[in-house]
Design goal:
Layout lengths: L1 H22 L4 H17 L1 H9 L6 E2 L2 E7 L4 E4 L21 H8 L6 E8 L6 E11 L2 E8 L1
Antiparallel strand pairs: 1-2, 2-3, 2-6, 4-5, 5-6
Helix pairs in contact: 2-3
């Protein structure tokens, strides 16, 4: 009887924790919606939008979803949740498996269209890369994207 009780408690714990973990990650539709919101913000006031994207409480971060942008002639990161990437060239970004991620994001970004680019990248605050898909587009003078982890 004790075994049945403990098995039930264990199963309930796994079910509850699994649901909590699933909610900790953003989804594809949520990533796309955040990018649509970011595009609207860039078109309204690019400078303010970039400041908001870089501000953890600026309204453009949700769990592990965040907006990144790169602009200028060299496509330098103007916004990213990882401060260390700001000011570096998007084209130089390579994922942990050697994919020239930055070049692919630049190649696929187009005004008025959302392209999908897949790669391996660590979650915010972590170092181990996991599979990720990013929606990327152009807005104003920026290439912007929002990705979700698989």
């Amino acid at each position: 009887m004790l075994r049945s009780f403990l098995a039930g408690v264990f199963a309930a714990t796994i079910a509850f924790t699994g649901g909590a973990l699933a909610q900790a990650s953003g989804t594809a539709p949520e990533a796309k919606a955040l990018l649509e919101k970011a595009v609207t913000a860039v078109k309204a006031d690019e400078k303010k939008a970039i400041a908001d994207f870089n501000n953890p409480t600026g309204g453009f971060r949700d769990r592990d979803l965040y907006v990144f942008c790169a602009g200028g002639a060299d496509n330098v990161f103007t916004a990213h949740a990882n401060e260390k990437l700001r000011g570096t060239k998007l084209a130089d970004l390579v994922d942990k498996k050697g994919k020239k991620l930055g070049e692919e994001l630049i190649k696929n970004a187009a005004e008025g269209k959302f392209a999908e680019v897949d790669y391996w990248f660590p979650r915010p605050g972590q170092t181990e890369p996991v599979e990720k898909v990013t929606y990327v587009t152009k807005a104003g003078g920026q290439i912007c994207g929002v990705g979700y982890y698989k």
